[in-house]
Design goal:
The protein has 231 residues and is α/β, with parallel strands linked by helices. The chain is 43% helix and 15% strand. The mean pLDDT is 97. Bound molecules: farnesyl diphosphate. The site of farnesyl diphosphate has 18 residues, from helix 1, helix 2, strand 2 and helix 3.
Length: 231
């Protein structure tokens, strides 16, 4: 069985670079290659949604030069990938507090999401300036505003209405979460959406993660029994 939605915490770019005596950005560049390969694998396998954690709200704490290089890399990736995304029928989307991204990055994203919007293979979702807690706060604010405007009663708020105010309202919850480089943490990623998601942690560093690793993660996922709290 192929998971409908795979989410990935792409960790280990810095370590990959350090192991080779390279600057950290080289690890991020190689990480972008892994995004390309894994997206292609998702298309080949028929995965409907792939959400990758590319920049967290906490990543602003990194040295300014690394933050700037990451945004430049993302912008370059978004612009350069359009022909391949079109060829493979990949629809590009982004989630996060996108209004705080560098303007040129916002423009590149707007263009790429518009151009690829009607594509029908995998939807590649970039989590950019994303944090699960901020997303929950934004949803709570949206609900409060509707209650204050008299459009919604407090008693009518349920899981479905809450989820409909998240950035991911149009996406199914992930079936499988992959985290590379061995860390056993959620790191503020998709906190609401991962409630029943199967977790696969691999020691591989993200720049070394490829199509075969994705297939192995899916094979392991298929051995799991998902019970959703039942027996
Ligand atoms: C974590 O590795 C990775 C990031 C914070 C950035 C992820 C970005 C990419 C994979 C590059 C571009 C993405 C796209 C979508 C083109 P780390 O730097 O925390 O690694 P470390 O823990 O080994 O230091």
């Amino acid at each position: 069985m192929i998971p409908r939605h795979i989410a990935i915490i792409m960790d280990g770019n810095g370590r990959w670079a350090r192991e080779r005596g390279l600057p950290r950005i080289k690890g991020h560049e190689q990480g972008a290659e892994s995004v390309r390969a894994v997206t292609e694998a998702c298309v080949e396998l028929g995965v409907e949604f792939l959400t990758v954690y590319a920049f967290s709200t906490e990543n602003w704490k990194r040295p300014e030069a690394e933050v700037a290089a990451l945004w430049a890399l993302l912008e370059q990736f978004i612009a350069q990938e359009i022909p391949t995304l079109m060829k493979n029928k990949v629809r590009l989307q982004a989630i996060g507090r996108l209004q705080e991204l560098p303007e040129s990055c916002q423009h590149a994203l707007a263009e790429a999401t518009a151009q690829t919007g009607a594509n029908t293979a995998t939807t590649l979702v970039l989590a950019l300036n994303y944090s699960g807690r901020s997303e929950i706060i934004d949803a709570v604010k949206a609900l409060c505003a509707e209650v204050a405007a008299g459009e919604l009663g407090v008693g009518d708020i349920d899981q479905e209405k809450f989820a409909a105010r998240l950035y991911t309202s149009a996406h199914p919850d992930p079936d499988l979460l992959i985290r590379t480089s061995g860390e056993m943490r959620l790191s503020n990623f998709l906190l609401w959406q991962l409630s029943y998601t199967e977790i696969h942690v691999t020691e591989k560093l993200w720049p070394d993660f490829g199509k075969d690793d994705l297939r192995a993660a899916i094979a392991e996922f298929n051995k799991r029994q998902r019970r959703y709290g039942g027996i």
